[in-house]
Design goal:
Helix 3 (72-85) packs across helix 9 (282-293) and helix 4 packs across helix 5. This protein has nine helices and eight strands. Helix content is 34%, strand content 16%. The protein is elongated and about 70 Å long. By secondary structure, the chain is an alpha/beta fold. The strands form two sheets. The protein has a five-stranded mixed beta sheet. Strands 1-2-3 form a three-stranded antiparallel beta sheet, with helices on one face. The chain has helices at 4-8, 10-21, 72-85, 89-95, 100-113, 186-192, 240-253, 264-277, 282-293, and strands at 36-42, 45-50, 56-58, 125-131, 164-170, 175-180, 201-205, 220-224.
């Protein structure tokens, strides 16, 4: 269920922030000392004083929610709706009655705080790529608006406003990684597969030429299907799981109307977080979302 009580009560939201923020104990966000005492309150938030540096702070200090006059419960609703339901920023400013610029800045700050995925591969691994239309959205001073992406089909490059996005699925752990890149070349593929412990990692791909050098490398055991020949699966050899995640990733970008190619990484981090919480109940999902950014 949606955690409605948290979204209508500022004190409940503050208590949840305290629970998650200090899950490993209270410490000073400035000097990291643990010699901290309670020191009154700031609105509904607990205030503290550090005995080491003699500075005061509260539960929001040093988080993505600090320095905001907007109620914390509204920001909780915003990040929950954004991750759980892929709500656009234009819709969020209507739902929580906050200006679009304020919502945009705070959500972007939240996205930058998300943990960067670090693939730890056990294998076998599926690897595939998709290409998204993404230009340089917005404008610079004294310059006209930039292109939001070309309407071209097929494989292109980052410089041509159609950057590649690699989808990597570890079948042993069912972990999925969606990672934008500047180019779809051999060096990029090797960097994506570098986090493996097996002496010979089995990699399932399609017939894209960037994967060809893996066949001559003892670190990898590459098996592939050629889609151009109508071959999509040969026993365990397929990239169907990657293609399924790729279709979901395209739908994830759709409501946001032309994401800049320079901001694809935080948007896809949010997508991966959404995949983690999609089967969790509302309260647990909200806690997971907040723990990732705090």
């Amino acid at each position: 269920m949606i955690p409605l009580k948290t979204f209508v009560s500022e004190r409940r939201a503050a208590n949840l922030l305290t629970q998650i923020r200090w899950r490993d104990g209270v410490y000073c966000p400035r000097c990291r000392a643990e010699s901290v005492i309670r020191y009154g309150s700031y609105r509904v938030f607990q205030r503290y004083r550090c005995k080491n540096c003699d500075r005061t702070f509260n539960d929001k200090t040093g988080t993505v929610f600090e320095h905001s006059s907007i109620a914390l419960r509204k920001w909780f609703l915003a990040v929950y709706a954004y991750i759980r339901f892929n709500t656009s920023l234009r819709q969020l400013d209507v739902e929580i009655d906050v200006s679009y610029k304020t919502v945009y800045r705070r959500v972007q700050r939240f996205l930058r705080a998300l943990d960067a995925p670090r693939p730890q591969l056990d294998g076998p691994v599926e690897l595939d790529e998709l290409y998204v239309k993404a230009g340089l959205k917005g404008r610079e001073r004294d310059r006209p608006s930039r292109s939001r992406g070309l309407s071209t089909r097929g494989r292109r490059k980052y410089a041509e406003d159609k950057p590649p996005v690699f989808v990597l699925v570890d079948r042993a752990t069912n972990d999925c990684y969606v990672l934008p890149a500047k180019s779809a070349e051999e060096s990029t593929v090797r960097l994506l597969l570098s986090g493996h412990e097996e002496e010979s990692l089995t990699v399932y791909t399609d017939g894209f030429r960037a994967y060809d050098p893996l066949e001559d490398d003892e670190e990898f055991n590459r098996e592939y299907v050629v889609h151009g020949d109508g071959e999509y699966a040969d026993g365990d050899v397929h990239v169907n799981t990657c293609e399924s995640h790729a279709s979901l990733a395209r739908r994830w970008l759709s409501p946001h109307r032309g994401v800049s190619k320079d901001r694809l990484t935080p948007y896809f981090r949010a997508f991966q977080l959404r995949q983690r919480v999609r089967r969790k109940p509302g309260e647990e999902a909200l806690k997971t979302i907040l723990e990732t950014a705090l």
